[in-house]
């Protein structure tokens, strides 16, 4: 046989062929490939491996952290300080720059290693049939057309078409995010409405066999698999800068322009108006440039982010990348999956329905706390209602799942098997039935497994008592519609009755009501086999057993919303943050949950399935994204597409996820949030933040912290820039008076403020907790600037001019009290030093009042805890200590042009912060009128 492998084999198009025709379509045979065919296909398709993405050299990554715009400004600023005869100050600036560069490098070096994590999820070996012999080979040696054997517990090595299956169930949660096992079959599937992952006759690399066994033909390997496509999306995604990084770059440019412009103006003025020598004028101008460079910006940003990270960790959110914290604050849309994030990922029976009545089941999750209550709210008695007892007992007997309680290794309940069946066990326990005793009462003798064609499962049990005069019963659970058609009788608390069309209609109507509310519904029925003379095992076939059954009731279940989720979503709505559910679950279920927890508020919400999304143009998608929408049954690349469309609409997007399928969207998002409990390593590596409790509410808490970071950076800038005005105004007096007014503030005194007294209080503003109303504001727009008109007016004109007036007042009062007039102003000597010391002191004391004002944007400082920010308190003590050292330690006098002060000097300085605070309190009060 010639070997011309159909290229379509690598495009997942084997699902339409009948099982016997798949061999020919894949150009293979039931005895497997021959060695020459294997070698030829390995040459054509390569090895079954995930390719590594090209990475930037570590050295280059390291260097880039020291050549950003802000870093360059700090290098220059340090050089300026050294040129200004201040070696120590210059070295401090450079040290700050080096620390920030190393810190940033460490953060980036720990960034996503998603491909390596993906590779760990693929098995090392596979069982194949080649040349008629079963072999165990390295999984990377698989080729399209290989015949592969899989069984319970196996992790699948490649995508493939099933040609034979025995009770096969596959856990596809790594690709779909949904934990319920999927039943697989070898039957052909020609449904054009299905996406690749929905075909029941296909299995995929990276998924796990939950039960059963099968033979498959490999249809795709390596990067051509569904798993590989996720790896490709993840690898080839450029790491974009965060909104904060972009804004800091823009801020650096603004500051550079301002600083250089001021420096040039003062240089020209010094040479033209005062006729200073070129060298002296140059140093003077350089000093002004340094004054306008916020040396503490990077440390403040880093500290603010780091403190927010610590607070978030206490709220169960671990941040991998510091800049992600502020990105959360700018988030305008959160794309959240459903299972485990918005819901508990714990199927829970909510309702029981029998022909004679309906019951509510209380309690949530896999805990046995709860009970069964009738329509009147009273606890139902199983003793008085035999049919209800049988419904609950039989539901457990027809289950293969186990629920393990929390232990030292697992903090929560662990489910072995299908979660849908696990909740049936919990139902029995809530009814007071001991599972072990129930199994002893009715041991199982045979099982007819579930399959997706008949949509039901049957067990045959030998009961230690008579049910309808029989000790041998079959118990069947399955889809209500199909089950109802097979039931000729029904049982209620009054006994056994013949099924009628009216009763069937009532059953289906009840099922529809449950389904409309997003509940998953099972019907349960039984058959007394001895009564029907079906006692031989040879008679126990699907055709014989699953007919003429007795309908017991409906069991409605759901994965309930997590506690606190609705409140968190309400908080998001108040903060003008949209929530969009993007799930692999069915549309009706998704919409019901979305309504229940408040994501969807109106009646016009649209549910878009993955198949519908696939047919949409980008423009159509953007249009539907403007309204209330829920995405259901979506594939990984579709979730990625939704995120991309939202970003193109100008949204800042946060995405939650836990599976391999979520990795591309997590990495594409502005902020990727992975689940710490249920999340795969791939999801965690691709994300920027990990929730240790998998709780949506933790994301909202993190958003609040992110907003606080942005506000704190603005507070820092306001604090730093407002001192620039009183630093520049004295120099302006000197220049505009053509030297008549001596320089009230020297270059070294300016540096003493910027690199000494201001640093720690400024850092303290970076760790302020969120203000009470921070989540009442809409998300900031990406076009919003840190250094905006409002901040500039407040810092330079309002705060800055007040400080300038007090600083220049201190300077002139010193002369006036000494001479009695201002006609002659000494430009050297003790009096001049006292005057410049007072100018410096006034700025420092004004900044003490200013840092208290800026701690809150609009509230009175009377509402603040004066000692609530320990770093600011430490900073104020250090600030005063530095000034006292400068004033009273003679060694600093010549270097900083300082003189000792008298009592009246200190009285004036002590009054300065109270003037600043008083004027700001008046402004805040007027703003609230």
From TrEMBL:
GO biological process terms held by the UniProt record: proton transmembrane transport
Membrane-crossing segments per the record: 58-83, 89-106, 255-275, 281-306, 795-817, 837-854, 866-889, 895-919
Membrane topology recorded in Swiss-Prot or TrEMBL: Multi-pass membrane protein
InterPro entries, sorted: ATPase_P-typ_cation-transptr_C (IPR006068), ATPase_P-typ_cation-transptr_N (IPR004014), ATPase_P-typ_cyto_dom_N (IPR023299), ATPase_P-typ_P_site (IPR018303), ATPase_P-typ_TM_dom_sf (IPR023298), ATPase_P-typ_transduc_dom_A_sf (IPR008250), ATPase_P-type_domA (IPR059000), Cation_transp_ATPase_P-type (IPR050510)
UniProt domain Cation-transporting P-type ATPase N-terminal: residue ranges: 13-86
MF terms in GO: ATP binding; ATP hydrolysis activity; ATPase-coupled monoatomic cation transmembrane transporter activity
PROSITE patterns, per database record: ATPASE_E1_E2
Keywords: ATP-binding, Cell membrane, Magnesium, Membrane, Nucleotide-binding, Phosphoprotein, Translocase, Transmembrane, Transmembrane helix
S-adenosyl-L-methionine is among the record's keywords: no
GO CC annotations on file: plasma membrane
Compartment(s) of residence: Cell membrane
Entry similarity comment: Belongs to the cation transport ATPase (P-type) (TC 3.A.3) family. Type IIA subfamily.
Matching NCBIfam families: ATPase_P-type
Protein name: Ions and phospholipids transporting ATPase
Organism (species): Streptococcus pasteurianus (strain ATCC 43144 / JCM 5346 / CCUG 46074 / CDC 1723-81)
